[in-house]
Amino acid sequence: MTRFVARRLLEGVPIILGVTLITFFLFYVFGGDPVLEFLGKHATPDEIAALEREYGLDRPLYIQYLAYLREILTLDFGRSFTTREPVSQVLLRGVGPSLSLTVPALFATTILSVSIGLVAARFRGRAIDRGLMVLAVVGMSVSFLVYIVVGQYLLAFEWPLFQIHGYRPGLVERWPYLALPILILVVVGMGYDSRFYRSAIAEEVDKEHITTAYAKGLGAGRVLFVHVLKNAMVPIVTRVMISVPFLVTGSLLLESFFGIPGLGGTLLEALDRADFPIIKAYTVLVSVLFVLTNVLTDVFYAWVDPRIRLS
Amino acid sequence: MRRALWLSALLAATACKRVDSAEVGKKILHFGVRSEVASLDPVHASDEASSIAQGLVYEPLLQYDYEARPLVLRPLLLAAMPEVSEDLRTYTFTLRDDAKFSDHEAFADGVGRTVTSTDVVYAFKRMADAKNAPKGWWIFADRIVGFDDYKEAQNAAPKFDYDAPVEGLEIHDARRFSIHLTHPYPQLLYILAMAYTAVVPREVVEHAGEAFPRLAIGSGPFQLNRWAPGVELDFTRRPSRHEQVALDGVRLHIFPQEQPMWLKWRVRDLDVIIVPFDYQPALFDRDKGLREAFVEDGVSMFQYDKLDFVFRGFNMEDPVVGGFEKGKLVRKALAAAYDVEEIGRAFYDGAITAYAGPIPPGLAGHDDALREPYRGPNLALAKKLLAEAGYPGGRGLPPIELNFYRGGSSPEQAEMIRRQWSKIGVDVDVKLFSFPELSRRIRDKKAQVFSLAWGSDYPDAENNLAMFYGPNAAPGSNHFNYRRDAYDRLYERARVMPPSDERTRLYTEMRDLVIEDAPFMGAFARQRYYAQNRRVSRFVPNETWWTWLKYVDVEPRAR
Amino acid sequence: MIGRSVITRLRGDRGALLCLVVIAVYAAVALLVASGVLATDVNARVGERFLAPGPGHWLGTDRQGRDILARALFSTKIAFSVGLVTATVSVTIGTALGAVAGYFGGKVDAAIVWLYSTVQSVPSILLLVAIAYVAGRGLFGVYLAFCATFWVGPCRVVRGEAAKIREAQYVEAARALGYGPLRILVAHVVPNTLHLALVSFALAFVGAIKSEVILSYLGLGVQGEPSWGTMINQSRGELINGFFWQIGAASVAMFGLVLAFNVFSDALQDALDPKAS
To answer: How many CB pairs under 8 A join A and B?
Structure first.
């Protein structure tokens, strides 16, 4: 087991290296000029040179790339070009709000979608199944931006059920502000997920041992919940795990419309201001999480189904 | 179902409880700003949000009169306006004796001490220290005796020595000091009202180190109570101060998007906002004024005329649109085909003033009646000029590359210009960039035609005229790479002259040279509208300086 | 394989047929726009700005006084070109790489898995922005950004299927007959993954149209020509002024096409599903 995990983790190293190469070249070689952005309209050649030296942007590219790798190993990404804060501090600050937005949304989406999937699969082909699936397709055919703009206007302003905008750091105080963005995320996600879970569950229902269970006279609910759901766990967990590394990145549009100080907004700002230290650390963070969740998913598979050997 | 109803009732209850209990009975001004505050260190002051925040906490030596227009300088940290020597090269200042920094553990006993001459000189020297990544060295460059040498020597030295003397920054005693200039610098007093020169306490800067930009220990009327990055900054009034301030506090709310800011203002969570252009029609009708519903609500608005120079610039070194021969005809043809008023109506709700030359309305050297002879839309002239340049009907002219910012309405404006130019047979290639990319292209002289906005740093046209001074060519602020000896000589004469009719005459000569050569087209200044809810009074906004928020008054919040 | 039975099954599904008609209508509009019959001048001023619907501007005018209907119709062409190019290129690349990886396994497989894992683990928005930086703005940048990210999905599913096919008896037989790997790939592996490719195609098509809205919002979308994304983006402030025509026209037009595609791809999936009776 330990050997398996260690090997899978090692396999993640090339992925992280690949990500660093992509980020480095796309942004360093082709991106904007953070120095000019920072110094503003009165920048003089001397000042530009001085700041480039200060940021280490005057060094040869391969040295800068090696410095990037060293930053990853030491987990010290220096300071933001714009706010001059330590990068780790900026990112850590954004993780909480982003997770507060995405984790409840993922839970709610999954639970609701699996339930809808169960109902639809149970009544497959009947009016209720068709109705639910039509709703799901309709829901996923509307643009995300429209959900946000119209949702905020109607549900928080015209019909003031929710807060329009803002955030409180308190563990309790934050929820009134997060309620509407979470709701939007759930509505958007449910369309996709419920269709996926319906077909995953329907596939299980068709399998032989389920038919046997029905034949043995077990109640429909019991069969559905105990047998079908248990076997459908693999696709469900796979789908959930895929989104896990991206939970931490929050939602760029939702955060900026609702004033949630998460990592989505941090990234948008960093991109706009060519704040490389933030972009570099952010991509590494996500790719490391990606590798970790992949390993976790494999471990989970092995645990559910011992036939999948850890090799 | 019943549970869902109960839940929505709970949410509604929490949503409706808008006023913080701690705020009841207090005069807190809630102000919406459009971007994150990047830094509270005065040497970084350049974006609007940072300037607003710094203006609450830090004080430069001078400020402007709150209500007088045109702007008049007034002492802020000074006891009186400075004395100026005959030769205009020595300014002597006397500080007021009752200005104190707010408390911080770095001070003896943790109590903020009185502001002294040493603090002023220290703040100036911080602008020379490259490690601070200062944005405003240009205000001192080549002006103060010995300061440029000091900057060079100290940045080359292993450690920047703030105690090393600068000949031109002479301290007489704790309250009196002089600035000695290499040559007259009539804009000196304006720069001493800019946030860059605001006074900071050395012991706190050194104590805080890299964390100083997130701190706010100044002599201003407010202190930073809480900073939630990306959300809001909460300032409270300091207990004792040399000026009477009505407000108990100011809260800056950060809005990356326009819609939530507007909605928050509509429900009166915000007292004051700068109205986005797209939302102006919702607030008022250009002919009839404020909309009925807002009048009933006691809302008022304030029109502020920005000292603004928005332009479409040409790279004068470009083979097609540059130079003083064929390129000049092409530039004028493009300008004649361009309709700035149509841009104004579509994207600024008509809230712009088009003008000729680079000097915005409100400054000496500007002339409202002046029209450049090639002002568009004048398609007949445009076609004629284009033919004269050797491109009849646009034939033979390669597509013109428009370099625009990719956000806001810029992409749409580029589309409109393309449509306007297509009428004379000119093809356009639109290129959109983020600001850093756009800056890089302009600095590298790769931007054939580009769009930028320049806000005057102080109310003197010298600031705009410097943009056409040859030695300031890219990567300097002369983005046009405009070079004309006659212009440079005029500029060198005018820059050392105090305001006078003679100087204004030089300004107009320079303006007319630029109009003749057309290194840019379609200049305009934007108007901005501030919208205030009923609670706000004494609100006279100005964007040249930001230490005025302390003069605003609001009614206390009821429960 | 996609055979007659699939068509028979689809023909029986009235909803799917209706959707096919809807898609055909959109495609016809796109073709008419492309051939210069419909919405010929989308930049022309047809009247004052923010007009309500009326003769000559049946869905009102935008803030430049341009005809919203013409712009919404023109956007159909952009949607089809973005959708078709993205879907064709990304599915082709994805299928090819997936088939190769699944069939050969070993080092080739490891390399391809590494490639898509890397692409997948970069947040897609970051990759889109970065590619747009490099490729320059406009339609080409949009194509490139979408193709570079969208091939991962088809690649994964096809790889899984190809690995199964590789063990199938008829492939073993082909190998025994001395057929080369290329011939087996083309003759056996790829045709047997076509149903996956077809479904991926529909997904990519819809995904591209929807993602274009977000790219436009970030100022990285289609330029110079109207698209539903730029229309929605430009009308963000209009809602507050009580002007719904532009955001409404673009959203409804996009909704119709995306909905039809979604329903149709579902039906297609069901029809292709060998397990369904």
So the answer is: 154
